[in-house]
Amino acid sequence: MDIIVLRQDATEEDIRRIVKKLESRGLGVHISKGTERTIIGVIGDTSKIADEEEDAVKVMPGVEDVLRILKPYKLASREFKPQDTIIEVGGNPIGGKKIQVIAGPCAVENKTMIVSIADKIKSAGATFLRGGAFKPRTSPYSFQGLGEEALQYMAEARGKTGLPVVTEVMDPRDMEIILKYADIIQIGARNMQNFRLLLEVGTCDKPVLLKRGLSATIKEWLMAAEYVMSKGNQKLILCERGVRTFETATRNTLDLSAIPLLKKLTHLPVIVDPSHGVGKWELVAPMSKGAVAVGADGLMIEVHINPEEALSDGEQSIKPDAFKKLMEELKPIAAAVGREI
Amino acid sequence: MDIIVLRQDATEEDIRRIVKKLESRGLGVHISKGTERTIIGVIGDTSKIADEEEDAVKVMPGVEDVLRILKPYKLASREFKPQDTIIEVGGNPIGGKKIQVIAGPCAVENKTMIVSIADKIKSAGATFLRGGAFKPRTSPYSFQGLGEEALQYMAEARGKTGLPVVTEVMDPRDMEIILKYADIIQIGARNMQNFRLLLEVGTCDKPVLLKRGLSATIKEWLMAAEYVMSKGNQKLILCERGVRTFETATRNTLDLSAIPLLKKLTHLPVIVDPSHGVGKWELVAPMSKGAVAVGADGLMIEVHINPEEALSDGEQSIKPDAFKKLMEELKPIAAAVGREI
Amino acid sequence: MDIIVLRQDATEEDIRRIVKKLESRGLGVHISKGTERTIIGVIGDTSKIADEEEDAVKVMPGVEDVLRILKPYKLASREFKPQDTIIEVGGNPIGGKKIQVIAGPCAVENKTMIVSIADKIKSAGATFLRGGAFKPRTSPYSFQGLGEEALQYMAEARGKTGLPVVTEVMDPRDMEIILKYADIIQIGARNMQNFRLLLEVGTCDKPVLLKRGLSATIKEWLMAAEYVMSKGNQKLILCERGVRTFETATRNTLDLSAIPLLKKLTHLPVIVDPSHGVGKWELVAPMSKGAVAVGADGLMIEVHINPEEALSDGEQSIKPDAFKKLMEELKPIAAAVGREI
Amino acid sequence: MDIIVLRQDATEEDIRRIVKKLESRGLGVHISKGTERTIIGVIGDTSKIADEEEDAVKVMPGVEDVLRILKPYKLASREFKPQDTIIEVGGNPIGGKKIQVIAGPCAVENKTMIVSIADKIKSAGATFLRGGAFKPRTSPYSFQGLGEEALQYMAEARGKTGLPVVTEVMDPRDMEIILKYADIIQIGARNMQNFRLLLEVGTCDKPVLLKRGLSATIKEWLMAAEYVMSKGNQKLILCERGVRTFETATRNTLDLSAIPLLKKLTHLPVIVDPSHGVGKWELVAPMSKGAVAVGADGLMIEVHINPEEALSDGEQSIKPDAFKKLMEELKPIAAAVGREI
Asked: Which of residues 165-184 of C touch A (CB under 8 A)?
């Protein structure tokens, strides 16, 4: 039910026109005259009323404001599906008691590198391998990824370690090739509202890891999830990766409060990417601990053998030894919040 | 030339390693020891050094910070091309003395509507017709546009009025069909960093109108322009449409200071979309006047015959009569800043 | 009238408890059961209900959200006083047809300097003299202003030019001395929510110029105005000076849309400070033009004889010649919007 | 050492003028001509050069930009004092191995209430009592605190429980009375840049708890600390309480990454206020866990016997039972990061 707040000077004629418009959409009304304002409560399923109609009511004579009460997403909401969604990939359940750890380099640079990193993170306890084949870069002159070659190397690393592979899709035209190799399809922050891409991954049957947009509200993020789910694919994982604020000492401001908040609003698993979230390797370990403590279902961490030679994001990558140490340090924190890692 | 600031405790060995790395990239160095800090000036064309290498230097032992001095975009910069770029479309030069006005509905709803609006805005003085065929909507349940049908209607409206057509592309797979009908291809705010789409429009020979991203810095925006231009298409128009801030009383915060700032940094034409910038129809007229006063090369204004029945963005659309009145009011302001409208 | 939205699982007992609480505050209720949600409309003067009680209702069992409909400020609102407030200072009406221009240096550095600037801006058409005696500086090691000495110099400059004086108060303990010399008391951005200082200036009988806080919403700003007015002083002038965003190319993001928006919400005069708003002298002239075009009642501009030697804010100050040229250029824009300058 | 970047078209005359200006301040220069740009390195203690002089150099002919390398704060910096500062209050060391927990109501409402809460939080393990006597409220019509009466009640609660008292000062004129009762003086977020108040608390000998401003950068926050310390008071505790972003689902965005970052930049203790940070009681427990996991030295938590009847901030307060449970849950997390609670 929505609420229409009228202006103090709204006339009877204004009210009649609004009521007529609502009734023409099959909705009932409930008029309530207060001492200061009259409000119209709309009765019926206003979720059929798209935002554009709400806007149209807002400009009608006599209307001061329209308040929306129902959430604009459904399939993604906890009310629609109260129990937690658990997504199993390669034997690893995401969203259950065990915290899953996705690790690997920002970009796949060559075969030796990705196989070697996969090996090291596997032995440290990681459960998924990440790596970029198609890279979104702010400069057209930066390294854009190895493409299919990278996907082949990752598949080889998976063959050797058993780690399922997570990689990003940037273009609907790449879906076919990525689906051949990847176990989880990632949508990057800059594409969170690339609606055509969302619809495209919504029709595939592989899990989708949806990163939060650079300045996306929680509501917009869940509506992006709804885009994917509305096409049939319910295997969605949300990934907090920091939002843009005025602060320049960190690359982004990692919003850890989003995790417990999302746990109330949605049944979907929520993981955290501290590497992009802060952009400084020294802060990756403490923020990983924080993420586990607030209730994240998983972590996504950039690991590089030699960050000083990385072709991308060297500043926020940690070395395999630091990763191994971190995995040990996370165990008691996971235990403290009733989880395993 | 870039600058590397060393930590107070950097050793001679640290310095040697950094110098070696830079020399291996064909760069010279200039070491300068201050009382508090040693800094290394990098000599040579560091524009060949991508951001990722900068990151890699940042994590070397002894390094405190790396400062970039050269701008990360070239083709778009005023230094590269000092004289203003003027883009002529259908006889209307964009970026010259005359301020161009693009008007029309958010979404094309049917033929009668778009033809009628085109007719009215033409007689009020608009020089381009806008209209959405493919609409980016935050909800999957909202009206997504009529697609090619809308493009055909717009072409018909162009046939009757002579107004060239501006419409948005959301998906590289739609380029072929859009190029058949449109005179200017628009990239929306949510796709400002959809790098594949940028590369795609960079290879066509129609002008591109690039909206600023929801929370994009001026630098990122110019780098998105650089993406398009690096592919060969130099016909780029920038469009300020508001940025996201904490303020909720307006839809976005229209950043008019971006106009005179961009005029210093780039040779490209810059226009303003006050409709999306504020999201409230009552503010469209004053903000249009402000845009002309600060030096915008054009305006993009949402006009709808009946905003109360609009399928999209009714709240921020003005009616043809208000548009006509506004066009008259803009004339003395344009004259005051040495322009025509 | 406020609205309380209940959770889907709210019980009859929950409703009874809420109703009882409201009735104990002398308020009536209107319960409205929709298909998806029950809402409670609160009848009576909820402006007596402070925010804290609203918070208290929010945490009651069964409550999902509390929506406030009435504006939380009164004396400052256009509804309370529909006609524009015009404040006359030294024969200059602020808020009327004539646009008032306050100019002068950031800080008063010595007598010769302030007298000389006053003389030059007066002949260029400025109607008020600004100058800092007590300066808020982010570093304790920066120049903090000359204090009373500066006030004496400004009074002398007023004696010679007739320009009324605007200066900032930072501390309630300085009020007595400032009231001796100043014609308008300025509250700086950093003190917009220094509530004790607001109450203090609310009891004096001189006009108050209230700058918008660094990240203040329009609502918070008007509530700060309400603080002053609630103490009896109705002579309040609002000054937009830019808000903090993620953009780093300008010092702040000047929010010109605040001007026409405030003109709807409040009867108070609204002026613009483009110098702090952008922080770059090259942008002061275009943004001043924009401010006049969107409907500002005045401008506040930093002018310095020799910005290269300024003890404060040199980067955003313009020279007297540039100021004189700007004043000429503003005339046709003021005329275009039905004003004088 | 600072760096001055020259424009491509800077002349020899420009350079001579800049060098002369720097030498007149007792500074040396180091000119370095690159292929694209000439830069001037400034030699000597530029910390004597205030920001205003930097601004003045920025506007000199031929100058493109001035880069500051040295940090603008000293006493607060880790470089100045490498070892952690530990502040002992009433036998509780803040900044050491033990995590200190400050709990209590937003505002002191009456004696029974504060004594009862003090008793309950003490038995749950809190080590300090918080409570507002002078309350900063956005509305002049909201409850403003009981003033000295509240301080007396808190002193009584301290007498019964032994818990030292933390309370906020809003006005330099209240210092005398607050110093009579309080053990730690709090500076609230809205007063972080109330420089006169900072100078005032800098001269007292009680520890100061300095909250981060609503949209303050880490650098500005440390400079506010520097204000206090420059007056002699080195007993400063920093308190992260969330920053303002575009997100509206939480009251603020709690920036937990600030904790490990501050631990690198400063020797001062850093605590976290999750209650104001998120503004929703359901999120207080998970965010408290996150704060301990990322390395906070303490927590500040709002506890109220009956949040539904609170006169302030009911929505973000937890009840004594929930607080007790939380204290237990924090123990294993504290242990996991080598701390006690």
From this structure: none
